[in-house]
Amino acid sequence: MAAHNRWWEIGEIVFGVPFLLGIGLNIALPLSIYPAAYQPAGIAIGALLIIAGVSLISAARREMARFQQPTDPGQPTTGLVTTGVYGFSRNPLYLAAVLIFAGLAIALNNLWVLGGTVIGVIVCHFMLIAPEERYLDEKFGDDFAKYTAHVNRWLGRK
Questions:
Q1: How many angstroms from the chain centroid is the CA of residue 111?
Q2: What are the b/e assignments for 22-50, b being 16+ CB within 10 Å?
Q3: DSSP character string of 68-135
Q4: Is 120 in contact with 98 (CB distance < 8 Å)?
Q5: What is the pLDDT of residue 5?
Q6: Confidence (pLDDT) at 84
Q7: Which residues pair with 157 in a beta bridge?
Q8: Which residue from 153, 130, 150 is spatially nearest to 73, judged by alpha carbons?
Q9: Does the structure show a pLDDT above 90 at 41?
Q10: Mean per-residue pLDDT for 98-103?
Q11: What is the pLDDT of residue 4?
């Protein structure tokens, strides 16, 4: 048994579809986040967010591999990973997706993509995170409860 059993219940779809819709909407009706004069700064800030997101993905995948746990929510897990980046975020892979897509929105100066990222966060919460948390709670009980009592869903310790 796994947290998800449909191929599309993954972060790449939940964040990627709104991103593509944002690109399409921007072609039809361009909406900028900031004036064109700030484009160099926007590209720099966006690039930093993308780099931070990619680095976070790499760290999260390494930590899961260290404990021989899958990063695919469609695969069953045998252990709870609470160290490394999982010590300050229960969902570092989803947090990384937010950083990457927000970075793309800022670098592209595309308000539609930024709005799509917000939609992705909401959909991610209900479609991905909530079922995963129920799965982990059922599978690991008190250990998961202790973990959630100390580490926030998105970022930080309690």
A1: 19
A2: beebbeeeeeebeeeeeeeebeebbeebb
A3: T--S-TTS--SS---SGGGGT-S-HHHHHHHHHHHHHHHHHT-HHHHHHHHHHHHHIIIIIIHHHHHH
A4: yes
A5: 77
A6: 98
A7: 151
A8: 130
A9: yes
A10: 98
A11: 73
Q: How far apart are CA 129 and CA 9, in angstroms?
A: 10
In the three-class reduction of DSSP (H, G, I as helix; E, B as strand; rest coil), residue 157 is classed as: strand
Report how many helices (DSSP H) and strands (DSSP E) the chain contains, helices first: 6, 0
**What is the predicted pLDDT for the residue at 131?**
95
Length of the chain: 158
Tokens 């991103």 -> residue:
19
Closest CA to 64 of 85, 46, 40, 38: 85
Q: CA–CA separation, 60 vs 86, rounded Å?
A: 7
Q: What share of the chain is helix, strand, coil (3-state, %, to 5)?
A: 70, 0, 30
Q: What is the pTM of this model?
A: 0.94
